[in-house]
Amino acid sequence: MAELPRLLALVPARGGSKRLPRKNVLPLGGRPLIQWSIAAALESGVCADVLVSTDDEEIAAVSRAAGAMVPWLRPAELATDTAGSAGVITHALAWYEQEHGAVDAVLLLQPTSPFRSAEAIRGAVRAYADQTGQAGPTRHPVVSVSPAASHPAWTFAWQDGELRPSLGWEPLSLRSQDLAPAYALNGALYVIPAEDARAARPIVRPGVLPFVMTDARESLDIDTADDWALASHWADAPGAGAR
Fold this sequence. Notes:
Layout: E1 7-13, E2 27-28, E3 31-32, H1 33-44, E4 49-54, H2 57-65, H3 85-100, E5 105-108, H4 118-129, E6 142-147, E7 156-159, E8 162-165, E9 183-193, H5 194-198, E10 209-212, H6 216-219, H7 225-235
Parallel strand pairs: 1-4, 1-5, 6-10
Antiparallel strand pairs: 2-3, 5-9, 6-9, 7-8
């Protein structure tokens, strides 16, 4: 069994949110949304530190109270609606490694996936550590996926005034059980090699490995009011706080 990497958990949390204002600090099941991800990272026991990158004083205060490291507020240019995650990751990693030494990988945890468990984090990190068949120490990113709600064979594009199946007409004649399994990114977690993070390389690229999550709760990504309503229902269910 491979040795676990030295890992920095990074939780990116902007103050601005158009669809659900202030969602990162909204109470879910009796605690701020962002606290769910911080707690899972701390409980996993596989992270050297849990760092929150935010541009917002309230999010920073809530995150520190939850046990995360928040050493600065994110620069304004990395907190716009158009700012990508690569710059946020690179910025946070550069500071952390300068102050606390090099890490082997970054664990990116979106706060909008509150039910992703400590067990899932450990599983994904183990999958990252156990990669075999690589040349030298090189490892590929590991990303969480869920079974696709709709198989690509049953999705269509509207082209030239007509519907055209995404995978062509032939797969439409197959039974669903005869189709190859299809998965969708769920955004719950990403394990990124530090060298990729330093160079701001794309996370999802050739060679990326899946960590399959079949629990619908763990796969939930809160983006809309309907998502929030579902999350609130699940958070209030017996035993939800122990996830």
